[in-house]
Amino acid sequence: MLKTLEKQSTSFNNLRVPGRYTNTPSKGLIVMPDISGFTRFVNSTDMAEGKLIITELLSSILENNILGLKVSEIEGDAVLFYRIGPPPSGSDILRQYEQMLFHFKEKVAEFTDLFHHDSKLSLKLIAHYGEVSEYRVGGFEKLYGRAVIESHRLLKNSIDSHSYALLTDDLLDAVTQVPFRNQEKGINASKLCQVYGDLRNICFTYFDYN
User: Fold this and answer.
1) Are strands 70-74 and 122-137 parallel, antiparallel or unpaired?
2) Most exposed: 55, 60, 117, 139, by fewest CB within 10 Å?
C-alpha cells in the first residue's frame, strides 16, 4: 500500500500539462494597489459616471507600472501585480506607489472638476513576498499560493489611513535596501503585527501618505 502511495505521489509531482500549470513553486513579489472608498463610491454615484471614473483610475494604475510587473487579476477596486524572482529594493517599491498615487490623484482631481463631485477616493498598496506558482485558465495567467491569500487579507488591516504603502517583513527581509529614506520627506513609517483569521501572524511596515 505504501509503495502504491509513493508511486502515485511521484507521478503527480512529475505531472506536466503544457500551457496549464507547473508544480514547482517560486519566490515572487506581489503588489496590490487598491482603491479606498470604492464601496461607498459605487453606492453614491451614477452608474455611467462611476463606471467611467473607475475605468480611468484602473487604467492609470496599469499605465504607471514602472517596475514592469505582470498582471494576474483586475478586480473592481484593485489590481494584483506580481513578479517571479528576487524583489526590487524597498525604495523602488515606494517609488512605484508614489508614481501610481500621483497620477491617481490627478485623475481624481480631473473628474472632480468635470462632475463637480468629490469622490473621496484614494489609493493604498500592499507589497508582499513569498512562494507562489503560476497557472493558466482560459488564456489567463493566474497566481496561486498562500502569499496570494495573505496579500488579500492584508487589505483588511487596522491602519487608520486611506493612502499608504504596506511592505511586509517577508518582503523587507528579502530586499537589498530598507526604504526608510522616505522619512526624510515627511512620510511616517510604522510597524505592526496582526493575525488574520486562520493565517499566521504577519508583521509589516506601512508608510502613511495621507
Assistant:
1) unpaired
2) 139
User: Is residue 50 a contact partner of residue 3, using CB atoms and an 8 Å limit?
Assistant: no
Work out the angle at residue 34's Cα, subtended by the Cα atoms of residues 59 and 182, and round it to the nearest 5 degrees: 100
> pLDDT tens, 64-94?
999 999 999 998 899 999 999 999 999 999 9
Which pLDDT tens digit goes with each residue over 171-180? 999 986 665 5
Rg (CA), the chain: 19
- 177: helix, strand or coil: coil
Q: What is the DSSP string of 2-62?
A: HHHHHHHHHHHHT--BTTTB-S--EEEEEEEEEEETHHHHHHHS-HHHHHHHHHHHHHHHH
Rounded to an integer, what distance in angstroms lies between the CA atom of residue 31 and that of residue 129? 9
CA gap 49, 46 in Å, rounded: 5
In three-state secondary structure terms, 100 is helix
Do 107 and 55 form a contact (C-beta atoms < 8 A)? no
Average the pLDDT over each of 97-101, 112-116, 130-134 and give the range with the smallest value. 112-116
| Residue 125 bridge partners (DSSP) | 33, 165
- And the C-alpha cell for 168? 511586509
